[in-house]
Write a structure and sequence with these properties.
Structural class: alpha/beta
Bound molecules: zinc ion
Number of helices: 15
Strand order of the largest sheet: 1-4-5-6-7
Low-confidence stretches: none
Mean pLDDT: 94
Helix content: 40-55%
Largest sheet: 5 strands, parallel
Order of helices and strands: EEEHEHHHHHEHHHEHHHHEEHEH
């Protein structure tokens, strides 16, 4: 394939008309992200994909939409730096309509997220509930199942956009390839993982770019553990939490929590996540792991050597990947690492 075009949805607030299609948070404020249920936003994405496919001699589209649902955002249960429980979305009129169509009680969902916000803020202040952090969190879900339903509604909106973009591209030319970027959090967070069925995603795409960035993965995984370890799992020592979570994810031997940023995740992680994706799609689409080449990390975090990049690339290929996407962008890549990835591909092909 010659070219991929990436489409993101974060817009400057001074783009004309963008405020009207932005998401609305728990407090009723407009945010900087686009509402997945706003008809104009959906038309924008399909229109943009159509225009790209008609105007340029490209082989396909990689649709990139690195967005998490309200539950993850509330808990900071990703590698995100922030725990944004007071700013979860989207409570606009289009979401209200979508909620009705899916039998979700809008006001109960908003009330559930307001309670979740109070739980998160109290946890961050070290105010331990009498029954413990985890029981209190689970009780919120039991008493407000709308919290899960609302998160699910986000997934429905996101996957509907994926299906629409796929349809728009195929309408231009059946032979154009469509792929989706599968977020890094899919490999760190078992709760998020449960919401992503590879076999379902495979029905909407020709290929999936599965993020297996192992170098920056170290500091990102540490951040995830620190975030969930400061709210829902606050009663568990973080090193233990890391070990427990890694078992849930079927990770092998990775570094200790304090060493993760300087060690990164191993080539074995790359291989395991590649194999999981291959098994998950059941042959319905191809798997192109996203290989970390120079993705920026913190000042004291690991910078991958060319040998590291070679090992990660080789691990994905040996695990059975159909191809690779060297990620994320050329401007981040050191040529020696790029050369090492190329060498791994050529040597594997021999
Ligand atoms: Zn909305």
């Amino acid at each position: 394939m010659k070219l991929f075009c990436s489409i993101e949805d974060v817009f400057r607030s001074d783009v004309p008309g963008v405020k009207e299609v932005a998401e609305v948070d728990l407090q009723g404020r407009r945010t900087g992200t686009l509402c997945l249920f706003h008809p104009d936003v959906r038309s924008f994405w399909t229109g943009l994909a159509t225009d790209l496919c008609k105007s340029y001699d490209i082989d396909g589209i990689l649709f990139f939409n690195e967005r998490n649902g309200p539950l993850l955002n509330a808990l900071g249960a990703s590698h995100s730096q922030s725990i944004a429980s007071s700013r979860v979305t989207c409570f606009c009129e289009h979401h209200q309509k979508a909620a009705r169509e899916h039998g979700i009680h809008f006001d109960r969902a908003r009330e559930g997220y307001a309670k979740l916000d109070r739980f998160v803020q109290a946890s961050l202040k070290d105010q331990r509930p009498g029954d413990g952090y985890f029981a209190e969190f689970w009780r919120l879900l039991v008493e407000h199942p709308e919290i899960i339903a609302w998160d699910r509604l986000f997934d429905i909106g996101k996957h509907q956009v994926l299906a629409e973009v796929n349809g728009a591209v195929k309408d231009v030319h059946k032979g154009l390839q469509v792929g989706f970027h599968i977020e890094h959090v899919n490999s760190f967070n078992p709760i998020f993982r449960a919401t992503r069925r590879y076999d379902d995603l495979a029905t909407k795409a020709d290929f999936l770019k599965v993020v297996v960035y192992n170098n920056c993965g170290g500091e990102r995984y540490q951040r995830f553990i620190n975030n969930v370890g400061s709210t829902v799992f606050r009663d568990v020592p973080k090193e233990l939490l890391l070990q427990f979570n890694s078992k849930l994810l079927n990770y092998g031997d990775e570094a200790r929590l304090d060493e993760l940023p300087t060690t990164g995740l191993s080539p074995d992680y790359v291989a395991r996540e590649t194999r999981r994706a291959l098994a998950g799609v059941e042959g319905k689409c191809i798997i192109l792991p996203g290989i970390d080449i120079g993705i920026p990390t913190g000042g004291n975090s690991r910078k991958a050597s060319p040998d590291d990049t070679y090992a990660a690339t080789r691990a994905a290929l040996e695990a059975g990947a159909h191809g690779l996407i060297l990620s994320r962008k050329y401007s981040e890549m050191r040529l020696a690492n790029l050369e090492a990835a190329g060498r791994a591909v050529r040597e594997f092909a021999k």
